[in-house]
Design goal:
The complex is a heterotrimer of chains A (259), B (281) and C (363). Chain B is mainly α and 281 residues long. Chain B has 12 helices and no strands. Chain C has 2 domains: 4-228, Rossmann fold; 236-348, RNA polymerase II/Efflux pump adaptor protein, barrel-sandwich hybrid domain (OB fold (Dihydrolipoamide Acetyltransferase, E2P)), CATH 2.40.50.100. The chains are: A mainly alpha (259), B mainly alpha (281), C alpha+beta (363). Chains A and B meet through α1, α3, α4, α5 and α7 of A and α1, α3, α4, α5 and α7 of B.
Chain lengths: 259, 281, 363
């Protein structure tokens, strides 16, 4: 490889590794020496546990709803309604034009005390509908690709000719064959929700990312520890995709994050 | 037949309820007052004063990070994908880019504070070498600090998006050019870059849109010290500024327009790029 | 002095020996084909000549000059690739002009030359079209024009027709040959299609596993294969393992056959007798009557001729006879197949008779 190639790769490597190294160093600092003190402080903090598990629950809820919405939709589009595909694709891409900051403002505007009962307004699950929308692009991209890779018509017809009904066909024939795409989409959504700050913060809920922000305002070393933990979560999610995926290195394009 | 529509209805219903209606209401809300009257005062406001500043700054930072991120992302991606590169580089780069593209907001801000903040690792290291960043007027919490931070997700995003296009550069083109007498530079000038340009520009536009909409990173890093559109919207909603929330809606309206224009440009460029990927044989 | 020489080429990729030993000399204006199955090293050899690969050892010499270490863009050779080589961002005309632009020829000269070549390959009407608007055959014509525009010393073609439809292939190969003869350019052509190689080349070099098995004119290769591999690879061939008996005779499973070329082989020697299907004459015969006796097991209708498959003493024979005649010899009929004594080739039987990577095409 040319020298210029190595140059750019080295620059890239440095730029991306140094901040992580710096954060890691910070997270282990304890006065003038190093220890796990910052991490212990975090893990002992009940707020850490509360917000972490809340975000986890929100992520799971989002994933379930999103998959329930998308799998049948993409299936039907591929099987019977190919003309709807452009519409579904367009809608799935809309969250780029209506980013989280705009979406949450809109949701808060519409879904206020006039339409929504108080108990839902106060529950963090208020965020789930918006999170599902944020997941649209990942869901569509991963599932659409998965469905394109299999011959939907033949599989469905074969299953039906052998006597299976719709539910069984979906559950036993279709799902196993698109599982890779579905799992990839799930992991991406997981990383998305675990890192989502904008909507939670403006809707005044205490999720994991808002907790990180709060700590960041007050304590430096624990904040560094949390950053490492957060990075680790994203890493695990991506590793999950790779392990499940049969074509490593070509996982669905990831266009997300808490930006 | 009805069963089929039942299958897709939930999706459309959800999109309607939680995407289209909120977005639509917002866009209409930009033109209404609290009492429900229609007015253009809020929209006109965004062209004045701090709002205009915010748009300018947002566009500025988005342009710069799109161009820089695009160029650097392209160079790094090409280095990894070019024929001579060792085989492990590509999957390693793609994996890392996937993670980094998703790494944003508060943790990212903090990572950079740890690096380039007043007592950050790099700041201290440079200080030891005699270069004091902050004395020279640099601050992580200002415009350029934000640029450096944004690049952390802009570059990987560019890498992910431009890689398929780079893959599409057929080796035969390079060899044919060489066979006909061209040097490497001539190949790039006459064939390589012209073919890649729509993809590169399109990807940069995508980066622009992403940067324009970014909230969390800027919020964490600057706490509102820089005027950016998303931050202004946030402040108006949180009630930090005594102002009509409809002003926020107007700002959001402007934001959607800017991003929609960017997306349309992307769409056109993408069509052009895919035209050359079609082969008739 | 030969115009283009490949001297003692040897190429390894790690453990894999792509080219074991290649020695080749082309005269000026000659059209030589490198023919062989996939993996035989023909494309590697071509790419070494072009400069895209470096030989592990050996030299490439053109007009007495050693070009082995000259980079590809300074070798002054024109190459036509198998596919996808046209620059997509330029139309046909601009593609053809590219080499001339790189050489900084004056615009008027360039335009003239381009127009000339576009006309030569018959694409005047499509000159402004872009590659994705051209059919496969047209794209390859443009590629040819582009390679010829620079007036190269040597023309290199890497399976240029493999990706095209059968009909286009036949048309285009004849055009390539016509142009080559007209312009008198020394040409090295790589293909795995033996019909292609035989129909347009001055000489053919049959390669397998990185070595040349035989070089000769198409007629030589077809009529007088010197190794079992070549015999198998070129055309269809009946292979009879027999034992030499007396002067000019062999014994095949109890049947005595007259084979002139068996002279010179020792009595008792096991040999391979090679008989072309078109030299076999078939008639009804209850008892084998002096030739190879057996039953007709299948007819393969090929149009004017029919390939009749005969089971003779466990060996399947192919005989190409006129279809009208074949109609009188239905499946199941007992027949006798004979061939002229001089028409069969005899090769020594090797431990492992060379079998080509691809079975001979049963056309």
């Amino acid at each position: 490889m040319r020298r210029s190639g190595w140059f750019w790769l080295s620059i890239g490597a440095l730029y991306f590794i140094i901040p992580l190294a710096a954060t890691a160093e910070f997270s282990f600092k304890d006065g003038y020496s190093y220890s796990f003190a910052a991490y212990r402080e975090i893990f002992d903090d009940p707020q850490f546990r509360d917000t972490f598990f809340l975000s986890l629950k929100l992520a799971i809820a989002t994933i379930i709803v999103a998959l329930l919405l998308f799998i049948p939709t993409v299936y039907w589009v591929h099987l019977r309604l190919p003309r709807l595909r452009p519409a579904v694709q367009f809608i799935s891409a809309l969250p780029f034009v209506v980013p989280p900051i705009v979406l949450i403002v809109g949701i808060l505007y519409v879904y206020n005390y006039q339409w929504v009962p108080g108990k839902y307004l106060g529950s963090p699950y208020y965020l789930v509908p918006g999170y599902v929308v944020l997941a649209f692009p990942f869901m569509f991209f991963a599932l659409d690709n998965a469905f394109r890779a299999i011959d939907v018509h033949t599989l469905t017809e074969a299953s039906q000719s052998l006597g299976a009904g719709w539910t069984r066909t979906l559950w036993r024939v279709i799902l196993p064959n698109i599982s890779t795409g579905a799992i990839a989409a799930a992991f991406l959504t997981f990383a998305l929700v675990m890192g989502e700050f904008t909507m939670a913060s403006l809707a005044l809920f205490n999720t994991f990312p808002t907790y990180i922000n709060y700590i960041g305002q007050t304590k430096a070393n624990p904040a560094a520890a949390l950053t490492i933990i957060s990075f680790g979560i994203t890493w695990l999610a991506l590793l999950g995709i790779l392990l499940v995926g049969r074509r490593p290195g070509r996982a669905a394009v990831q266009v997300g994050g808490a930006r | 037949m009805p069963l089929v529509w039942l299958g897709v209805a939930p999706f459309f219903a959800w999109a309607l309820a939680f995407l289209l209606v909120p977005a639509g209401a917002l866009l209409i809300g930009a033109f209404r007052t609290q009492d429900g009257q229609f007015t253009s005062e809020f929209v006109r406001e965004i062209f004045k004063g701090t709002s205009l500043e915010a748009y300018k700054k947002s566009i500025e930072i988005s342009l710069i990070t799109a161009l820089l991120g695009g160029a650097l992302g392209f160079l790094i991606a090409y280095a990894a994908l070019a024929p001579g590169a060792p085989r492990i580089v590509r999957p390693a780069l793609m994996t890392f880019s996937g993670v980094a593209a998703n790494f944003g907001g508060v943790p990212l801000a903090f990572a950079f504070i740890s690096t380039l903040g007043t007592v950050g690792l790099a700041t201290r290291a440079l200080d030891q070498l005699g270069i004091n960043l902050y004395d020279h007027g640099f601050t992580l919490f200002g415009f350029w600090g934000l640029v450096v931070t944004y690049l952390y997700f802009q570059i990987p995003l560019m890498i992910l998006v431009i890689s398929p296009a780079i893959d599409g550069l057929k080796g035969e083109w390079r060899e044919a050019a060489s066979n006909l007498g061209a040097t490497s530079t001539q190949y790039w000038r006459h064939v390589g870059l012209p073919v890649l340009l729509p993809s590169i520009l399109g990807s940069m536009v995508l980066l622009f849109g992403g940067s324009f909409a970014a909230y969390a990173t800027a919020y964490s890093l600057t706490s509102g010290h820089i005027a950016l559109v998303p931050l202004q919207i946030g402040e108006l909603i949180n009630g930090n500024i005594l102002s009509d929330p409809h002003q926020a809606y107007a700002l959001a309206f402007g934001m959607v327009i800017v991003i929609a224009v960017a997306m349309s440009i992307y769409f056109v460029l993408d069509r052009r790029a895919s035209r050359w990927r079609r082969h008739v044989q | 002095m030969p115009y283009l020489e490949l001297q003692q080429l040897h190429k390894e990729f790690g453990d894999f020996i792509a080219i074991e030993e290649l020695d080749l000399a082309l005269e000026g204006g000659e059209f030589l084909s490198l023919l062989g199955p996939s993996g035989c090293g023909k494309t590697t050899a071509l790419r070494i000549v072009a400069g895209f690969e470096r030989p592990t050892s050996g030299r490439i010499v053109v007009e007495g000059k050693d070009l082995t270490h000259v980079p590809p863009n300074h070798r002054d050779m024109g190459m036509v690739f198998q596919a996808y080589s046209l620059f997509p961002n330029m139309n046909a005309q601009d593609n053809v002009e590219f080499g001339l632009r790189v050489r900084r020829k004056p615009p008027s000269d360039r335009k003239r030359k381009v127009a000339e070549l576009i006309e030569l390959v018959g694409l005047s009407e499509a000159a402004k079209r872009y590659p994705h608007q051209l059919s496969g055959g047209m794209q390859q014509r443009v590629a040819l024009a582009r390679a010829l525009a620079i007036e190269p010393r040597v023309l290199l073609l890497d399976e240029p027709l493999s990706a095209l439809d059968a009909l286009v292939r036949v048309q285009l190969r004849e055009e390539i040959r016509r142009l080559q003869t007209q312009l008198g350019i020394t040409t090295l052509y790589v293909t795995h299609d033996q019909e292609e190689a035989l129909s347009i080349s001055d000489r053919v070099a049959v390669l397998t596993q990185g070595r040349i098995e035989q070089i000769g004119t198409p007629a030589d290769i077809y009529n007088e294969p010197t190794t079992p591999f070549v015999a198998e690879f070129i055309g269809t061939m009946n292979r009879l393992e027999a034992t030499v008996t007396d002067d000019g005779e062999v014994d095949f499973h109890g049947t005595r056959l007259r084979v002139e070329n068996a002279r010179g082989h020792q009595s008792g020697e096991r040999v391979l007798v090679l008989v072309r299907p078109e030299t076999l004459a078939v008639q009804e015969s209850a008892n084998g009557g002096g030739g190879l006796g057996g039953n007709v097991v299948a007819h393969i209708f090929l149009g004017a001729t029919t390939r009749v498959k005969i089971d003779a003493a466990g060996q399947e024979l192919s005989a190409d006879i006129p279809s009208t005649r074949a109609a009188t010899l239905p499946v199941g009929a007992r027949v006798s197949a004979t061939f002229p004594a001089e028409s069969a080739r005899v090769l020594a039987l090797e431990e492992k008779p060379g079998s080509p990577a691809t079975a001979p095409a049963d056309r």
